[in-house]
TrEMBL record:
Protein name per its UniProtKB record: DUF7373 domain-containing protein
Region (Disordered): 30-69
Lineage: Bacteria, Bacillati, Actinomycetota, Actinomycetes, Geodermatophilales
Pfam families cross-referenced by the UniProt entry: DUF7373 (PF24088)
Top-rank taxon: Bacteria
Biased composition (Low complexity): 30-57
Domain DUF7373, chain residue ranges per copy: 66-255
PROSITE patterns (UniProt xref): PROKAR_LIPOPROTEIN (PS51257)
Signal peptide: 1-30
InterPro entries to which the protein is assigned, alphabetical: DUF7373
Record's keyword annotation contains Signal: yes
Keywords, sorted A to Z: Signal
Amino acid sequence: MPTARRHRRPAATALLAALLLAGCTSTVEGTASPAATSGSSAPTSTSASSSAPAPTGQVTPAPEVGPGTGAEARRIAAVTSLPVTVSPERTDSCFPSGPFGTGNSIDGIYFGDGRAGQELDRWGLVAGWGNCSQDTADNATLVLLTEVSDPESAVAAADALNEISLDFGGAEYESVDLPELGVSGAIATGGSDSAGAPTDTVQAWVATGRMLAYSYLDGPAGSARDLLVRQLQDQISLVAGFQPTPQDQVPDLPVDPLGLAGFALTTPGDQTRFTGSYDLEGYLRLAIDPTVERQLLSANGFAGAYYRTSYDEAASLDYAVSLYTFPTSAQTNAVYTGFAQLEATAFGGTPFALPAIPEAPCFSFQSSSESFYQRCYVGYGSYLASIDVQGLAAADDYTQMNALLPQQRDLIDG
């Protein structure tokens, strides 16, 4: 079941760290956690065999997973469809989401029985990115965009994966013709969402060039099929101008083109797979409100961001540092003020004064009945940074933030 997250940064829950922890920035592996949407028929088949024969053409092997894989995944993020574009009411972000570098990592989080991962790796998976958004009744849209060997391999993979999809959830799934997309997907009817409204669940894979797009969503009974078509059409349109990196060039992709990593505080624990450099569109795949944040950042000359996340297992705390850069200090200040206003209004934060830096905009959120989340901002010159601490037992436990925010301030003030 997709898990809701109400805050901007995807490393901001202990669940994320437990499921997606990669250990370092040289890999984008994930670990197993099958996904299903509320009130829907989840992918539950336990057969690990693949339905497709071995490739007969020349599949270009994917490069070894490394820093370049993460960089390519973040390039893919920038052209991965945002569910809210098609379903504006699906404003709550959820899991699974983020970068991927192997079929196994995708299978472990999205599917859980090994077959989809085998197919993806069979056809030369290089990297991928996933988005997840849901409405207040837990109707979710999952979008996954992956890069494989070549256009012929993408078509073959889509055919095989659509066939496998019919077996997820057993007899409840039936084939559904999608001539608008040139494929047949899988549909399950008779579900209901958390508000009790009747729903259908539908999923499909579509090839477009070297890219392979997947969507899995819940929708009102009788209209989920058309919603899926619109979601995948949006994805196909968005990726039309994207140029996948040739496989032999992936290892040499720049992982920090703006040299921002040194200005982003290294937080406690092990870094997760989300750590890395993002352009505007890539960053917006991490945003609470992509529309509002796109406007704010674009209007102020946003040049790039470096996002560092970690999980401290001993303390059961998640950390995230978002470092943004702008051409001038005036633009930095405008975004500093804009984010502070958004946190207190649209994002629902409760302001507090941090003892270490009382003037810093700081906000707390209640993540669950027993867990709290803090976010604070500092800015200097062309740099704006925020620090998140998740998993606190009390909203006014400032121990971690009191130590971290001054360190981040010192990094960017020269």
